[in-house]
Amino acid sequence: MSNAVSNKLLAELYGQVSGDPFLMLVTLTHPTFPQGFYLVNNTENIISRGREYQAFPMEITLPPDDGETIRDISIEFDNVSLELIGEMRSITTPMNMKIEMLLASSPNDVEISLEDLKLRNITYDKQRISAKFYMDSFLNSELTSEKYTPSLYPGLF
Predict the structure, then answer these.
(1) Sequence-distant contacts of 146-152: CB under 8 A, at least 24 apart
(2) Residue 121, by phi and psi: left (phi above 0), alpha (psi -120 to 50) or beta?
(3) Interatomic CA distance for residues 73 and 151, integer angstroms
(4) d(CA 102, CA 119)
(5) Is the CATH number of domain 20-137 2.40.30?
(6) What is the pLDDT of residues 33-73, one digit of tens each?
(7) What is the DSSP letter of 154?
(8) Where are the domains of the chain?
């Protein structure tokens, strides 16, 4: 997940005081949705690159960038408005998600982007929707159906 970030973002992140919020834009899409959901973890809607992102209470937990941990992203949405749950209940294939991170003062300048995230697991109750998304990693997929074990390939071991 390593990304080059601007000096402005670094100054805001490392400063003792910051007056410029770091926002996460979330785009949820699925072929069966009439339109995608465009959400921002903010108290008011924002417009970024001509698209309006709706203010929506959510918490996002990003994975550590250590090169060894599975790259799962956890997200919790408030379910009190029941906007998302109806659409999420209707799908039977994985939903897609994109997260874009930016400073509120420059909403058209995306600092970090995580794309091609797929829904792995979802749970919900009357107050919260909890979902796990994963980054499709070809390095973690099996290439063949063969298992190289000592009993099948004794010369390898």
Answers:
(1) none
(2) beta
(3) 38
(4) 23
(5) yes
(6) 888 899 999 999 999 999 999 999 999 998 877 777 777 88
(7) G
(8) 20-137
